[in-house]
Every structure is written in C-alpha cells, then in structure tokens.
Inverse folding.
C-alpha cells in the first residue's frame, strides 16, 4: 500500500495550487477574449461561487480520505485548500459588490430584503473569514481547544453555502440540489467517523 511521506507533500501542494489557480487563469482568459456569454456579470459571480463550493468539497473530503487510506500527512493540506475556499468566496463577494451593485452600498440592504439568500451567503462568508484569520499556527496554539471548536463551524458553512446556491437559482435546481445532497452525505460521513472513533476509544480506554 502506498504510504504518504514528507517528501510527497510539496508535490501534492503544488498540484493543489495548480488545480485552484488554473480555473482562475481560464476565467481571466475568457474575460480578455469576451467569452462570458450574454450576461458576463452573472457568469463571473457564478463561476467564482462554484469555485468556492468545489474547494469546500475538497476540504471536507481530505479528512475521510486521509483516515480511510491511512494518509495522515494529507491532513497538512487542509489549511491550503481551506484558504482557497476563502479566496474564491472573496472573489465571489467582490464580483457581486463591484459588478452587480457597483459598490452602491445603499442598495445592499434592499437587495438583502429582496434576495434573502444574500444574507445566507454573507453569513457563510463571515465564518470563512474567521476561519482564515485563525488558520495560522501561532493563533491555533494561542486559542487552544477553542480553535477546534471554532473551526468546526466549517460544517455550518457546508450547509449554508449549498442552501445559498439553491436559493439563488430561479429554475435550474438540479445542480444545487446535487451539491446540497453531496454536502449532507459528506457531513454524515464525518459524523459516522467521529462516532466510530469514540466507540473505539471507549473500548480501548
């Protein structure tokens, strides 16, 4: 069986960087070549939002994959992938504020009232902001047990983000439904893994 060693981490992280950055390069290329379809603004907003969702899927997959295949060092990539979730979500928010609202802050409240899914997305983003700020090793050591409690909020993001996506679409609900169902399955997997760990610890304790 393949065993992940420290020398493999750098190539894996480089691969993760490429997987995250290549779609952004493709987006820039499409912008420069006017290949964003009939509604460029919505294309960019949707594209960056999907990037955040896909990166979030990757974050939630890392832990069960690492435990199932006994690749403990893979856990050291979670921060990297998590920061890409935050980066794509930041681009998503920025695209909405700049390209859709044109930084007309007085319209933001009315938009939230008219489109409540914006509030759901904003809540998820604020949680991601907290997780990104506290992702550094020094902050983790300083927070102690509270760090893990805070970073468990990623599971709330895993519910809010697909709900935001589902609520934001007008007709095509198949794709957001698949994401919502997929995130629920991933969360159930995490819950089952924790229950198994607790049972094993109880029996061997």
């Amino acid at each position: 069986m393949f065993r992940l060693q420290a020398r493999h981490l750098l190539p894996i992280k480089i691969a993760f960087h490429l997987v995250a950055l290549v779609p952004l390069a493709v987006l820039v290329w499409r912008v420069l070549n006017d290949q964003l379809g009939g509604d460029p603004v919505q294309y960019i907003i949707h594209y960056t939002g999907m990037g955040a969702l896909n990166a979030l899927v990757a974050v939630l997959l890392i832990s069960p994959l690492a435990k199932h295949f006994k690749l403990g060092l893979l856990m050291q990539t979670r921060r990297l992938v998590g920061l890409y979730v935050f980066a794509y979500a930041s681009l998503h928010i920025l695209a909405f504020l700049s390209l859709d609202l044109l930084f007309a802050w007085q319209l933001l409240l009315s938009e939230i009232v008219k489109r409540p899914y914006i509030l759901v997305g904003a809540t998820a983003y604020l949680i991601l902001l907290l997780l990104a700020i506290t992702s550094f090793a020094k902050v983790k050591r300083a927070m102690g047990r509270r760090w893990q409690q805070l970073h468990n909020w990623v599971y709330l993001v895993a519910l809010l983000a697909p709900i935001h996506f589902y609520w934001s679409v007008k007709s095509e609900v198949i794709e957001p439904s698949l994401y919502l169902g997929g995130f629920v399955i991933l969360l159930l997997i995490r819950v089952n893994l924790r229950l198994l760990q607790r049972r094993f610890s109880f029996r061997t304790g």
